[in-house]
């Protein structure tokens, strides 16, 4: 492991610590590694130590390069300074990707509490988006974040269609950052069809970090600690994992449907295609099938893809190919 | 294990299967066991086999008695028939608790899909509430449930302050029951301060049951299977677990705050106490403390308990006891 | 689940309880299931309840049919009565395999303590061998078993080349059945090149069964409980697992080398081939390679296969194929 | 984390890398941490990279300080150079314990392959013994180690009564270091009543290190990777863990019986006490109890403690105390 300490902004005391791992070894085709960029919490007043190195260890163990950003806090915290720090950090990592053996399109951001707010903003409104975001007991809503930094934006309201996949975890009994923050962000992701995973554990105080016994003796739901390995498994799904050929392709697409592609397609949702006059035309034969006794569940139209509708109706391969080519001929929007 | 099959309603084809475990053995003080009541899914058209016995096994393994309710479906499903079936089942279990060695106040209901709708209604609007509810990829909203049973109520709208603690899990890419169903129920729980835990896994189709390889070969996020052991750990927290003295007390209270007690108390939230003129009087010294440099985070008032406020201000034991006795003298509502 | 109770020997009070699972369902090609046959412990004096149904649950959960054999104990225990009971049980299961949807060549035996002795004898000296054996804190040596049943044989001495793969677990501080019993059996397996896996946990009393909290409140190494899921993962490796085409082939061969095949082959060990004059001839070119600077580690000759030797020397595909065909021309023994 | 690189022996190219963690934080009473000293493998020819930093990460995550010793290899490897390197390293760590916040009596050594041989020698024959030892697929026997370093001793033969508790893991199909090496060491520990835990996984090649996917794409039994968390749980049992008062006392004694104490005692084994004429006198009443129908299992005498014998006979507290005081009056050896 090679450690580098880089001052990003001397005046605002902003720095990037890099823990870089070698490539090669027994995995002969491993020429680059994915990376996580850690944004510790601390209410934009400090960068909490318990959310720096202790968070780095499990991701290093999982084979990731790790970067820790100590962003602008206290008198330097005025928005958008922290977001600009993030932009500067991710730009540098992508620019030096070759030198550092970083897979430039497999960089996740992970933030806690106020750092979770910053990570959510990185995911939802930055210039230089991360490829995935992990948010731990994040501050999200204007209501909540304004207690700490009045100039900061509501991160849920910032969510747009370009937001990256997100993994959100929190404890239900956090009495410093109400769980409503996480719920608001999740709803925003749901509205924009952004892929997400979430774990809200029944019991535990604020700020548990990885939850290992060397960090705290407080009482909390033991399964809380699973967020760490779960987030790694999720990253492997979203960004791809390690394999004989280096980094493998992701197991699942990062989009939960095909509504944002350039043309309509089999992964578009039923509701979405039906909103398009030409699309409606292609699917006109559905009505006859429904009348023949297999009505589609109306409420599922929002999430059911054309592909799953065709399976539902028991259509053969030929029909599937025909529908696909007709849909792909229709420009999206 | 002793198996009993009980016909609850011959006309509607409703039955209760009981898998009863012996008491005693190496745990000498174990005179009764907690129980789970399983409500399989199937869109109120069938009771799906994959959500009956395969769900029973892990709870039997964890030491629970298990009951499976095959409730009214198809032509018998008109609401409130299924809910009445539930009422009949739980009444019988509680009535025969002594004979069956069931801990009558430690009975959880677990339902999937349409059975998750029924379990949610049991939790939120039944006469004879369960002590905990586990909801797997549940149908919740009127929109969604009406595709299957037009007479059924919206379970999220039914949530009230007597709703039991809930554990909700689903997959984000379920394209039969939109994840919005789970999110709506969680929001309702949050509004009523009901304790909950939730796990929404990134990828997976509808109806995975326990997710073991002998049930399905479909592709889904591997950590999905953790819902089983997580739900058991959660039940142990909510209902108590097995120990040298038989069943232990729960690790955590089932209420996330003390707002529903008979009097105000240290577990009441700041916001709640401040809404009460007498309570506001008791806490009048907070303002002075805040002015001395430790302002309470405004947004946290909804979730911060008086107890945590006193810790926040560094108050000694004497003050804590004084505030407690003053609050306990104030009738709630 | 379908439960059957079959009296095997009325006089000796021997019975077989079957928990049979349905086939089909979402795994369309699942026409048969693997099975485990449980042999509870109890010093050949009783069949302990804590090692019957509680052991069945996790294997049912994993998709296995489960059989529980209550064999001859007390006045009926004189050897070979218990072994005969086993023979009768496994014969019946294999005979009725079609009716019960059992995969007749995927049946594992699992025994505890005295039942572990019986399972070890089934694995090592029965007529009708199981396909795999799981031994929990087993009695093995003559010394130990004779305290309980003077007529019983030493199971380690019975191990032969037809012994099935074994999974052995125990606790180091068992002060009823010394851990030496497990160690002796493992050494015997090692001598005969039988595949095995073993877990000896640092701390715990005798007779913990699955170790779930509803069985005992005694203090032991928490990871003890992993033997259950580890044994299931091991069975899946040895017997094959569930998949889209029903039951899959095993991940690994059950033989750790090819020394027991009909001819010599690439999986034979170096030492073994070198004991055969014709084999030695085939490998005569190894000496030259060694002299050229890559001496083979002498001590590894016992375990190194010809295949790994060829890799070690960096031989090309052509040489590998040539050596293979020459070896396969040599009859074994 | 503070990284230090210390040259121990310039001529032999021996170095110690220290990853030191801060104390304090949310665990207010944490003034020192336990430590692990890593000895990478490489056949005494190199120090393999895959067994240095990648092994450090999980122990750092668990709260341990980590030291990596790059000991004498190749032309510098002649015995006892590597053992002397170990002695120098552990002496330095204990000497600087206060400065580095190391708990000087909670230092574990962990070695792999040839490093496992060195760790075994450290455990069994060094001047300055570690408090626990973890051996991964170790070279042990003279036969095996002499392929790599002819001057090195057989580690199994070195085991004495002062050997520290050991955790040994390996894969059964390792065809570079035969599993017999591990078995021989385990038997030696068993003979000397040394506490141990062992996991031998069914399938996997040599040199898997932690087994994470970023290290190798080879095929092996998936549960192999559990050795890491299991070894940490075991260390917590042997050395004590993190808690509200800093480091807690161990859960279990490191001795599996009391035979090595200064006097006889309740934790001495039956066999051991019976070898002592005065001890035999104290236990003379056992014969009468056995004749009354509860014969002690003869084979268990080697492992059964006096304490468990008294429980077996159902003796009351008074008798227990009497026996204890009589035994403690008898000097050991």
How would you describe the overall organization of this protein?
The structure is a homotetramer of 333-residue chains. The first copy, chain A, has 333 residues and is an alpha/beta fold. Chain A contains 13 helices and 10 strands. In chain A, the strands form 2 sheets. Chain A has an 8-stranded mixed beta sheet, with helices on both faces. In chain A, helix 1 links the parallel strand 3 and strand 4 (65-70). The radius of gyration of chain A is 22 Å and the shape is globular. Chain A starts with a strand and ends in a 5-residue tail after the last helix. The relative contact order of chain A is 0.10. Chain A binds chain D through residues 1, 3, 21-22, 25-27, 30, 33, 49-50, 53-54, 57-58, 60-63, 207, 210, 212-218, 241-244, and chain D through 1, 3, 21-22, 25-27, 30, 33, 49-50, 53-54, 57-58, 60-63, 210, 212-218, 241-244.
